[in-house]
Every structure is written in structure tokens, then in C-alpha cells.
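User: Predict the structure for this protein chain, please.
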Amino acid sequence: MTDPISDMLTRIRNANNALLPKVEMPASKMKQGIASILKKEGYIEDFSVQEAGKGKKSLLLNLKYQGKKQIIRGLKRISKPGLRQYSAAAKIPIVLGGIGVAVISTSNGLMTAYHARKQNNGGEILFYIW
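Assistant: Here is the predicted structure, written as C-alpha cells:
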């Protein structure tokens, strides 16, 4: 797999469109950090890391819905392996006028665009979620 973050976002997008309650994927520290941000921002209910056998771990996300309506309206991968997108702290974009969230990988770890601007940290713009 060349881009595990895109794989994660695609699994979330597909499960969300199918109104599935849970989605499972291979685990990594980066994916756990992304899941933590999604939980803090209210896009998912919860997440857990489970043993998948042979020393491997899987990440299980519990998706969030309002009745039959999705909380996650859209996901867009910005920085890709073929074209990385970096931004200075002052030029970090605002997603949909503040409705969405941009997830940034900074030298201080993963954080939302709001927190990165507040701490004056630039970095790689991973994806937008709204």
C-alpha cells in the first residue's frame, strides 16, 4: 500500500455512505492520531485498537450519524505521495469558511488547522473533512 492515509479516508467515506456503524482498517500511530482528532472534533463516536492476529493490530472506528443523516459530509485528501502540500502557519487554509476542519501534520504532531495557527506551526496539510 503506497498511501495508508488515503486508504483510511476511503474506508471511512465508503462506510459512511453505506451508513455502516463501524469500519475496520490496519492500525498505525498516524491513523490513531487521525482517529483521535476526528473524535475530538465530533466526526466519529469512538475508536479502539484491537489485535488482528500474527502481531498485527487493527483500528476500529465507530461512525456517528444523526438518524439516517451522516455527520461526515465530505473528505478530501490534499497532500499525496506524488505531490506533498505544505503550508506556513499564516497561510493554512480555512475549510468551507470554518465549517470544516483541516488536519495538519506538524513538527509537534498531528493537529487541526485551528490549533496549528494558534501555536504558529506550519506543516503538511493531510486532508479536509466537513
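Helices lie at 4-17, 29-40, 113-118.
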